[in-house]
Design a protein that fits this description.
With about 350 residues, the chain is an alpha+beta fold. The chain has a single domain, classed as 4-Layer Sandwich (Deoxyribonuclease I, Chain A). The protein has seven helices and 15 strands. Strand 6 (about 140-150) and strand 7 form a beta hairpin.
Length: about 350
């Protein structure tokens, strides 16, 4: 009996040690931190009144559209776990192709992996930077998921996901503003996503500093008010810039349907992903969007769809959940979603807005 007791005690101690290791080794940053900026000394400054082209894109960790991952189906039964190295490399090339073709001044990217077992522990922002260094001398990033081990049966290893912002123009500093996580048990919340807004600052000759805001908000949060809270923080960050007189553009994957939408126009498998009242309404009420509520509910609404799910029951782009908002100090020149040659690259489409700085 003593031996059995020792074995049981040792097993319990091992479980406690593993729990403590997973808990304390996960990345949970404070509410507000400065992030590192990498920028060549000879990068030019923006100029007051210039045209500024911004591309926003959730690149789905370069996984391509060749898979149905476990989370792509509502019951978690998607069969695929890892994209192949070959598909990642091909997707990387396609993302570079689109960026070089569009020639945006600012690139806002979501869902880049860093040190994740699922993608061979790559630093995917660095992979892009290596191929785009001549065009984009400045960049910053911010992690919103990082842990050395997540004991999910379809993960069972390290995770790392981040926002990345690239710029043709000088970047002087970057800030990370935390967004509240989905409430869960102690360990699940600790090991889960810790979403954020990454704000990069760019000097403007003859004008106030320009701010580029990059975010990826939560999904699968039904039954909580976390999306209301995340949107409220995004509004506060933008309001602070307005008060300071800084022009800004915010892009990201908000995981929310447009105001005025009925979620039942989607396939019934995804109705439960969204609430009847979309939590993004206050952002639309407060600041202009590149695609207006009228655009998103009008006869050409399909032209503004940004999401093509990997669920095999869904055969086409069917919703807008990615957006670009901007300061009233900035004048929108044009906006479009690039779809024709991008549907095979990611489950989200690249969005391109052109603006005039004050």
């Amino acid at each position: 009996m003593k031996l059995v007791g020792k074995i049981a005690g040792g097993f319990v101690a091992l479980i406690v040690v593993l729990f403590a290791w997973m808990y304390f080794s996960s990345y949970v940053p404070p509410d507000h931190i400065e992030e590192e900026v990498v920028c060549h000394a000879d990068a030019p400054a923006m100029k007051a009144g210039q045209k500024l082209k911004v591309l926003n894109w959730n690149v789905q960790y370069l996984a391509s559209k060749n898979y149905v991952f476990f989370y792509d189906l509502s019951d978690g039964s998607g069969p695929d776990i890892f994209p192949s190295r070959e598909h990642i490399e091909a997707t990387l090339g396609e993302i570079v192709r689109v960026i070089k073709d569009e020639k945006p001044d600012i690139v806002l990217l979501q869902e880049l992996h860093e040190n994740a077992r699922q993608t061979y522990r790559q630093d995917q922002l660095q992979l892009l930077v290596d191929r785009l260094a001549d065009e984009y001398p400045c960049y910053a990033d911010s992690l919103y998921w990082k842990a050395p081990f997540v004991p999910h049966p379809k993960i069972m290893g390290s995770v790392g996901m981040k926002l990345g912002t690239l710029s043709k123009y000088r970047m002087t500093r970057a800030e990370r503003q935390a967004l509240p996580p989905i409430p869960a048990d102690l360990l699940s919340e600790r090991l889960g996503f810790h979403r954020a807004i990454l704000t990069t600052y760019h000097p403007v000759d003859g004008g106030k500093e320009f701010a580029a805001l990059n975010t990826h908000m939560d999904a699968f949060s039904q039954g909580t008010n976390v999306m209301d809270e995340q949107v409220a923080i995004a509004i506060r960050v933008a309001e602070a810039l307005e008060t300071a007189g800084n022009p800004w553009v915010m892009g990201g994957d908000f995981n929310l349907l447009p105001p005025g939408w009925d979620r039942k126009q989607l396939h019934q498998d995804v109705w439960d992903y969204y609430n009847d009242r979309t939590e993004i309404e206050p952002l639309f009420a407060k600041f202009p969007s590149t695609a207006t509520v009228a655009d998103l509910n009008g006869p050409r609404q399909a032209a503004f769809y940004t999401h093509f799910p990997n669920n095999p029951k869904i055969k086409r782009l069917d919703r807008t959940i990615d957006y670009m908002f901007y300061s009233p100090r900035v004048k929108k020149q044009s906006y479009y979603v690039r779809t024709d040659d991008a549907k095979h690259i990611s489950d989200h489409m690249p969005m391109i807005g052109e603006f005039l700085l004050p």
